[in-house]
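Working notes for the structural subgroup meeting. M.R. asked for a predicted model of this chain before we commit to crystallization trials. I am recording the input and output together here so anyone reviewing the notebook later can reproduce the run.

Input as submitted:
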Amino acid sequence: MGWYPEKIDPRTDAVILGMHAKPDNPELLKSKELGLKIYSFPEYIYQESREKTRVVIGGSHGKTTTTSMIMHVLKKAGKEFDWLVGAKLEGFPQSVNITSAPVIICEGDEYPASAIEKHPKFHFLFPHIAILTGIAWDHINVFPTFDFYLEQFKIFLDKIEKGGILIYNETDPVLKNLVEKHPADIRKKPYRIPDHHIDNGRTIVELDGKKAELLIFGDHNLLNLQAAWLATSALGVDTQIFLQAISSFSGASKRLELLAKNESTNVYRDFAHAPSKVKATMDAVKQQYPGRKLISVLELHTYSSLNEQFIGEYRGSLNNAEAAVVFYSKHALSLKRMPDLSKEKVLEGFDKKGLVLINEKEELIKWLYQQSYENANLLLMSSGNYDGVDIISFAKEITK
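Returned structure, recorded in token form:
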């Protein structure tokens, strides 16, 4: 624990600066004083992959899942590759891997690269194959206007290697308009939701006349799957091999993760926090189980979601729930040094009849126990931890 600037000396080849280190970090200050080469993490990854085929997955939502799908398929297909992904994935011991493999798969985040490099991470990866999953305003603390946020994606298009491939979600009108008007020297491959049907809670997808039953579900995941298929095809993976591999993909950590179930109830946990992610996750569970009541709990935990100016972006996102709670703790607001968020503003922003607002974890636990879970699904959405509520034990208890 702690910082050791004395370990930084003129013999150090380079310093890699993560995004959480602050500008006054003692080791960073020593590195700057000595004039050492300082890389942000994505700049370093690029240096390690200059000779590789670089695949970069960007977009406001679905990046981690799409990246994970590609990794899962390539591993099943026996392909050598490196990776950079923002979540724990079954079968992969760490989130970053650098070897002599000819390909690297990178999740391309639009958040700033480091404390001294304020440009988005995905501007430093220069893909040969790029995916954009969609554009929905996020990170209001960094991008105070939508136009400023959109500009980062325009710049990303110019970072694609000449003659490279852009795989993009044409069902997103903002993204479609951006790509179609952009004069980049690249091959543009639009995608939509693939052919599929739902049979008693099971999703069967069809690609090139071949079918496979999936463990994942929801339109947003089907869009992610279609993008992953196009990317892996460009890397030489046959459609039949893709379908065999993707049929065993169970999702990235905390992405529609099934915590517990019985014959009449499923409990899901999802990382959804931005408005577009919340709506997509809600729609997915409702479409998969149209005959079941949907009970949803959304924790507001990020800078954007706790911001009074942003809360209106959530309008309608919880409309599919028969019972819904929005939870945010005073503790989270104080940690982020943010002003109080009035319940009136939150209710006005979500504009959902019967919405319950809760600030105390004891009150949230009480509300959860008051619900009836017979023929119902419970969806827990957060990038936080509900101020310490043990949701896994609760999920197991109500499904015993």
